[in-house]
Amino acid sequence: MTIYEQIQRTIDYLEDNLSSQLTCEDVADEANMSVRSFYNYFWAITGFSYKQYVIKRRLTRALDLIGKNNLQIVDVAFESGYKTHESFSRAFKKEFGVSPVDFRKRPQNFNGVKKLSIIEEMCMGVIVKSLPQLRVAVFEGFAPEPEDKAKKQMEEWLNKSDLINKPHRIFGHNINPVGNIAHEPENVGYKFLVTIPDESDETGNSIKTEVLTAGKFVVTGIEGNFESDPSGKWITDGWQKLQEMIKHKGYRVKSERWFEEELEPSIPGNLRLDLYMEIE
What are the start and end residues of each CATH 3.20.80.10 domain in the chain? Predict the structure, then answer.
């Protein structure tokens, strides 16, 4: 399962329970994620914090319910997940600039926030996903143990910066001796890419940054460990799965770009990755 499927599952779950008093722990459990990982990826992928999204979806639902004259405002509040009429009225006015009572008297065209759908297409256990342009901090390591070296640099920087507590994503790929993307499993280098806000000054002057251009990708998720499969066949099977889906759908590989995104494993000790391959 990809991170997109996990987040879409939480979105669907929230939609079915907007009137309930769900905790963040409840929603994270639905996706089999830790609360910290859920907070980070929900925000990074949707552009909303969990709290923001819940509030906006509840108030958008309230817009429709207020239009039904058979419902009292207090009933709209309860149906929208609010415990009191007063807390609902404050939230509604803060979001839309008018009270629920005034909105009923003089309806206006507020768009609200519709339910999110973050998966464009899915086939053969592979999803199609467009990535926006991303600004990233870059960390490179070279043989021996290139990935370990790059990860150590990245983790030291993350622990010193405020970004560790802000939504971010971590991608990576093999590189050749001059730092360009490489495809061979036996590579001389590895590069980690940490997403940072466009306006962020987190990197200072000591960390290299790049801009990843937007693109359309096929994505699949894999999970395993090298103790049970030292050959890493579960990784090569994942890449083969992408190739088979591309062939089945008649897509064309657009470029040499590929990424892997390391995620929280469902079983401690496992390595979990989402694999990305760019298509036209």
Answer: 126-279
